[in-house]
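Session log. Operator J.P. requested a structure for one protein chain; no other inputs attached. Running the standard single-chain path with token output.
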Amino acid sequence: MNMKSLRRQWLFLLLPAIALLLGGCVTHSILISFTGEGKPEASYTIEGDSLDVFDDRIPLPSKEWTIVKREVGEDSSGNIVASYIFSATQFQTLSHPIAPMGEVGSIDINRDDHWFYSSTEVIVSFPNWHAIERYGDPEAYVPEEVRIVEESGLDSSLSVETEEELERMDARGQQLWTVDRYLRQMERLVRTVLADDIDSSAVRDAVERFAPIVRAHVMTLRGDNLEPTDPRNVSLEWYPVLRDPMIIAANEATGIAPETLATTLDSLEDEYKRWVDLEDDTVQLALVLPDAHFHDITPEPEESRGDTLFWTVPREVLATDDFTIIAAGYTLSWMPAILGGLFIGMVGGFIVRKARKKRST
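Structure written below.
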């Protein structure tokens, strides 16, 4: 069995809370279309397992959107599924919630009317999550021995004992990554609550106060020499244990009220888990612009059906970059064009008649 798939299997066992969240898949669908008058309409649908859809961690769109439907039912397999459907009409700028904490995605419609044609530009932006900067890179903590086996493709020929030892090494590496993630979260907590009044010494102080605590927590998870704990059976869901120590360390370093720190810290943890959820969730965008001939589309749509273009927003791109879809089109204004042609023809005819009249005299 492939080592990466093995790692994924036991990580789900080690993360019971996150595994529950990832058990169901949520689909986020954004549809933007234009009426006969060229006015934009948008719908945003959240659909999936009811436990995921109604989890308070999933942010709902802003008040610019109107909720159209909230329903719960069963799919063909008897699973409980739920959906939210929102709509927005006649807008130029609209926000959507597929974004990290403190940011929003955006939908911008730019229309210009010219004498002979009107142009439409649709820009849909999904912000960069800065995942490695904020949460660390789990791949950086994969032991070299595990990486060599994965890259060489030799994992299928390993003995059971060797495979299990590599899994244990990999599990210890993921524990080190989790330490790094919480240290980064502490730094971000202090920077967030201090906002424009960031004091680098306070950030450093908070991290230094918290670092021994999180490292001591790892040691308790490993057991002792007489009864060492198999790292494959150790949960990486440490937040319930580390939450209060993080708040205390940040309070001592900044003097910020614990209640404020707790609210911000919970939001940061929710943001991280939303990022984890996006690995199994699907984010789709559909654009319908029937009155325009698209002449500039970036990136190319994955699929097109008639006037409708479809994209799936790739999570791996959002880890390090913005993902922006731009579609530009134009619509000819036939009446002005006809009138303009008649006018040009009349002027041309007048000039020709004048020229002939001069020759005849």
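Operator note: DSSP finds eleven helices and twelve strands in the chain.
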